[in-house]
Here is the input.
Amino acid sequence: MIGATKRAGVIGWPVEHSKSPRLHGHWLAKFGIDGSYVHLPIKPEDLETSVRKMVVDGWQGANVTIPHKEAALTLADEATPRARAIGAANTLIFREGRIIADNTDGYGFIENLHDRTGAAWDHARPAVVLGAGGAARAILHALIDAGVPEICVANRTVAKAATLAAPFGDAVRVIALSDVDNALRGAGLIVNTTSLGMTGQPPLNIDLTGADDDAVATDIVYTPLITPFLASAQARGLTVVDGLGMLLHQARPGFAAWFGAEPQVDDELRQLMVTE
Here is the structure.
């Protein structure tokens, strides 16, 4: 980082697995920017002290990942409406000694859908969201903002899904994951927000027989790129969208704010990110 005029990184605990430095490093090199983006392993009890020291030391900002997203929002002097609505921040921008919080997860999700499906995704049709964790909250907000008229959240624990759905009003209804078959009929989009299907995790077992032939299936998991859920959707003949693009697109607003250039997601970048 010596000599780098602009500094940013990704905060997490642990965080060494994050591919964000590879992603932002590619863009820094592409634009010829004198800057750096690094892993920042910070324990929860050290988060506030560390972030405030970064502000004093002249860093431009940071991405925030597990387990710090909710706590990061509480540190902000200012937050975007979407960060407030989601209740978590994945992007911090430091300006004139102030901390600005944003949440670009939903933005990245929607941009990835548009990028990979073109006109195949009809946002005027209902959607089914599988899972009720933090990622689901960001995606619900983004889908409602995109104009999706009705969203069904299916989760093993209905009470948890109900808590998640409550702030979003009548546009979101809740069912048990075991009852998802009926909800698939008429849905234009089926989203897996759980970690099931990720490398090292058991698969998500969903019967997609009842899904409409023109539905889009997407997963927020990108290791592996084609999860068992997406493989079953492909076998069913559905349009599928992997989760890698969500990671790539959610990074764009932060990079622009920190380094002053507007990056794009292209095939070169996707190939770099899937190469070990």
Observations:
- The longest strand covers residues 6-12.
